[in-house]
Amino acid sequence: MKLIRRWLDRISFLGVTSGVFAWGFVQGNVALGGTIRFEFAFVVLAVVLLQAVISSLLFTGFVGVSGVSFLWSLRRDADPAPKYAGDTVTAIVPVYRDANVLDRSVESLLASEYDDLEVLIVCEEDDQAGLERARELAKQTGVSSLVNTRYPGSKAGAINYAVEETDSDHVAVFDADERVDPTFVPKAVARLQECDVVQGRTVPQPDGAVEELAYYESVLLSYVSRRLLYLCTEFRMAASRAVVMRRSALSITGGYDTEMLTEDFDFAYTCYRHRLDVEEQLDHPSKIEAAHSLRDWWGQRKRWMTGYVQVLHKLLANAQPIRKVRNLTSAAICAGTVIGSFLLLTILSKFVVLFFVGMESYFVPPLVAVVGVTAAVRVHDWRVGSVERLGWAWLVVPIVVPLYSLTAIKAVIEYAYGRGGDWYSVEKGS
């Protein structure tokens, strides 16, 4: 039965991928508005406007406007003044099979410029290496450890258990491999005077070919692509790393959903539906480790996309009652994310259309927009010390778009066949 399902899954993936590409190709060949005629000095110029041309220009405009907006946000995100003491903050660090990198988050949090910070490592019972490393680190002042015996088996459960076992005014969550900037928590606490949740930025470290891919994917698809959504709505991401929040935010939302593959994606929509005020903090980002192989990159992204589909399923099921507008808008925003990721592949097929009709020049605007925006962000990150070098991979960053779309297609197919998604742990360095 497993063998049949595996082959059915592969055949479906090949068929759907081919179908999406073909649909984009056929759609790109459609002539819009018929023939446009220009008459001047007895010369008649007829122009047929292809849908592929419009798509190219629209994509260029979207990336350009979103990129400029993100760069503007990076430049102006410098206030309010940080608070270095006050309300107690419990920094929760869930760990599972990450014992060799756990010291990164713990040591960086101990170096935080915020005085009233407590570090709590939450381990799983079946992770012996994590338990031992947590006990060693807990010997330091300001660090304690906890074994997740109440809601074992998920990051969401570990966070919820830690929240229940503590009573600090504010709660923060960080990944085990996350190097937290010393100024991040003081700035976040200052922002919490005016909001419920502060979400920081994470920067995958681009120290290899695949790592470069992960870095530019983060820039383009996690930050730049959301700018127009943030400008037009009050929705903001509220994740389960690089985040600081009031305890009341977790009380109102009920915490993270332990049934969700991507508990952070689900939590963001829960905050939005409960009208919590979520603010970004883009300066002083955390440095995180990126996937080190294409296999890890693929497995991790496919799991994330499967989680996005699961969240969409949940939002559609809970869209009632209609009078609660944010129930509907949440489902619409999530659907746009999933469907948009699914159809990114059609951009490639429309490039093929332009090539066949001899309009290769229309390749240039979207490529320049993608490369220009990501290169500008890379320069900014290099200047502020978030990355160590400028690199060269921004020249080939457009390949991120179709690759990411393939992971979305694969995730949708697996979810449709009843596969909720498997746990995937990427290899991390010591």
Automatic annotation (TrEMBL):
Cited CDD domains: CESA_like (cd06423)
InterPro entries per the UniProt record, alphabetical: Nucleotide-diphossugar_trans
Gene3D superfamilies: Spore Coat Polysaccharide Biosynthesis Protein SpsA, Chain A
Keywords in alphabetical order: Glycosyltransferase, Membrane, Transferase, Transmembrane, Transmembrane helix
Keyword Amino-acid biosynthesis: no
Pfam family, one: Glyco_tranf_2_3
Top-rank taxon: Archaea
Coiled-coil segments on the chain, per record: none
Membrane-spanning ranges: 7-26, 41-74, 331-356, 362-380, 392-413
PANTHER family in UniProt: POLY-BETA-1,6-N-ACETYL-D-GLUCOSAMINE SYNTHASE (PTHR43630:SF1)
Protein name: Glycosyltransferase family 2 protein
Organism: Halorientalis pallida
